[in-house]
Design a protein that fits this description.
265 residues; alpha+beta; Fructose-1,6-Bisphosphatase, Chain A, domain 1; D-Maltodextrin-Binding Protein, domain 2; seven-stranded mixed beta sheet; cell inner membrane; EC 3.1.3.7; magnesium; CysQ/Inositol_MonoPase
């Protein structure tokens, strides 16, 4: 894989998709439909998916593509593929909370190795460089040229006074019960894959997810967190979370800075 080209393409497509998403977000009204699993989908999901999937297929025709909005891609087999959630946090989009992201990632041998997470309503972009190091880009987000970037890294936290990040839309008692096992300094909530990025920048230390997610929800954020020195493990046994599972469904998991000693489930 030509990582320089990959990062350039993923970044550009995320910005183009973000423009379309924000165009629809700015409308007075937009249609919301329900998919077969009763999860919501909007014109923004579909338009962003069309931009990203066509761009990736043109640039990398020999690499398998899995995208949330195209059920035909959910039969893809193998451990190496591109994976896309064109609008992660659709509920946040619908309720106009701003915590939604564009997610594009490359999975190699079951591991997310490169990814981009772009939050267009918050003007925050995180991606892995070709060398695997994660950065946050600031500035005008020129589609043709990377602006000023800063390398990001996880906090040096140990188990004293942790900052915990949890979901805005999927918080439940099981999550609170697990968090209560730690010495927590403070908690913050965030939607979509931004939770991974907050750990990647050191703004948070721990993100437990005791609930359903799919691989397209997590791959890009996982790649960004890994490139900043963090880890994502299975909730039950703390082994690495891997990708390319038969149905692309994740088990419960924990994302964390490596200095945090994880408590048993």
């Amino acid at each position: 894989m030509d990582y320089e080209k990959l990062v350039r393409v993923m970044r550009k497509l995320s910005l183009e998709a973000g423009d379309k998403i924000m165009e629809i977000y700015g409308r007075d009204d937009f249609d919301v439909k329900s998919k077969s699993d009763d999860s919501p989908v909007t014109a923004a999901d579909e338009a962003a998916d069309a931009i990203i999937s066509s761009g990736l297929r043109a640039a990398f025709p020999d690499v398998a593509l899995v995208t949330e909005e195209q059920s035909a891609t959910h039969d893809t087999q193998g451990m190496t593929f591109l994976i896309v959630d064109p609008l992660d946090g659709t509920k946040e989009f619908i309720h106009r909370h701003g915590d939604f992201t564009v997610n594009i990632a490359l999975v190699e041998d079951g591991v997310p190795t490169r990814g981009v997470v772009y939050a267009p309503a918050k003007n925050r972009m995180f991606f892995t460089r070709a060398d695997g190091q994660s950065v946050e880009e600031t500035g005008a987000f020129d589609k043709e040229a990377v602006g000023e970037t800063a390398e990001i890294s996880v906090s040096a936290a140990d188990n004293a006074a942790l900052m915990v990040v949890a979901s805005k839309s999927h918080r439940d008692q099981a999550t609170d019960d697990y968090i209560s096992k730690y010495d927590v300094r403070d908690m913050t909530s965030a939607g979509s894959s931004l939770k991974f990025c907050l750990i990647a920048t050191g703004e948070a230390d721990l993100y437990p997810r005791v609930g359903r997610t799919m691989e397209w929800d997590t791959a890009a954020g996982h790649a960004v967190l890994s490139g900043a020195g963090g880890a994502v493990v299975r909730f039950e046994d703390h082994t690495p979370l891997t990708y390319g599972k038969a149905d692309f469904a994740n088990p419960f998991f924990i994302a964390h800075a490596p200095g945090v000693t994880l408590k048993p489930a």
